[in-house]
Structures are given as structure tokens and as C-alpha cells.
């Protein structure tokens, strides 16, 4: 299995888009909490709830980025 690379531009508190695992669309309104066990923790900004799912770098983009 290839080693997962950390996203070079994302730090805790960065607003991010998350790739929807159902339809592949990018969804805004989240922020990065931190990296744990080679994955990222994400919080919904609307209610500050940390999502139970973890995300890898391919599933996150800075909110002001493309897509």
C-alpha cells in the first residue's frame, strides 16, 4: 500500500471542501480539525460538530480552491 501524503496546504482551522462520498461533488462549509492516524478530522462549521468519518488528502480541498 502506498504511503499517504499529507495535504501540504491544510492546517487546523482551514476552511475546506469535502468530497461527497455518494456523488463525488465538492461540498463547502467545513474546517480542518487536525490530522490523526494518517487521516484528517473535519468539523461542520454550521454547528461545530466533528464528523465521525475521517478523510484522506484526496477528499479535501481548501474552500477557496478549484471545484
* Overall geometric form: globular
In spatial order, strands of the major sheet run 3-2-1-4
Extended strand count? 4
The CATH topology is given as SH3 type barrels
CATH homologous superfamily grouping: Integrase, C-terminal domain superfamily, retroviral
Q: What number of structural domains do the residues give?
A: 1
Percent helix among the residues? under 10%
Tally the helices: 0
Report how far apart the termini are.
28 Å
CATH architecture: Roll
Strand percentage, roughly?
Answer: 35-45%
Helix vs. strand class: mainly beta
Could you give the order of the helices and strands? EEEE
List the helices and strands and how they pair.
Layout (H helix, E strand, L loop, with lengths): L14 E5 L6 E11 L2 E6 L15 E3 L5
Antiparallel strand pairs: 1-2, 1-4, 2-3
Give the tags.
4-stranded antiparallel beta sheet, single chain, 0% helix, 67 residues, mainly beta, disordered N terminus, SH3 type barrels, 4 strands
Give your account of this protein's structure.
The chain has 67 residues and is an all-beta fold. It has a single domain, classed as SH3 type barrels, CATH 2.30.30. Helix content is 0%, strand content 37%. The termini are far apart. The N terminus is likely disordered.
Please provide a brief summary of the model.
The protein is an all-beta fold and 67 residues long. The chain has strands spanning 15-19, 26-36, 39-44, 60-62.
